[in-house]
Design a protein that fits this description.
The protein is mostly beta strands. The chain has strands at about 10-20, 30-40, 40-45, 50, 55-60, 60-65, 70-75, 85-90, 95-100, 115-120, 125-135. The mean pLDDT is about 85.
Length: about 150
């Protein structure tokens, strides 16, 4: 007996691609966070809706590259109608916030999608240069083998 289960991603993936201005020889980012992100919710099955309380937190994405040019975080799906904000602290102890507002084409954050923010850090400002939204890539198939049905009563 073989059963194929189709699974869908319920979380959203946030990817940050960081570049820095010519005034820096290396990445000046000491800390980067997504601010006021819902961090607790209750999944409602079978609809996959999420009920949220008032709990929000600053989320620190995982650094993926040694030079600090790529970061990634998984977040609960939520419609941030007023946008999202990133907080960035640089090596010279400057703190910047970069707010990104939704557009008719982009809302933050829908489950099953990957959001890539291209962020440029300069001496006097941080700029979100672009945002792309794509289906979160198919993770492939796991062949778990065959399952035998048992008719024994235990």
């Amino acid at each position: 007996f073989r059963s194929d289960l189709e699974m869908q991603r319920l979380l959203a993936k946030v990817q940050l691609q960081v570049t820095w201005g010519t005034e820096y020889d290396e990445n000046p980012v000491q800390n980067i966070q997504l601010l006021d992100i819902h961090d607790k919710g209750t999944w409602i099955l079978p609809t996959s809706d999420v009920e949220f309380g008032e709990s929000v937190a600053d989320i620190t994405p995982k650094q993926l590259t040694p030079d600090g040019s790529r970061y990634e975080a998984l977040v609960l799906p939520y419609n941030y109608t007023s946008g999202v904000t990133m907080g960035i602290t640089t090596s010279d102890n400057r703190y910047f916030e970069a707010a990104v507002n939704p557009t008719p084409e982009i809302s933050f954050f829908e489950g099953g999608y990957a959001y890539t923010f291209k962020v440029k850090v300069g001496k006097d400002k941080v700029t979100v240069e672009s945002i792309t939204v794509e289906d979160w890539a198919d993770g492939g198939t796991i062949d778990a083998g065959e399952v035998e049905e048992s008719t024994e009563n235990k």
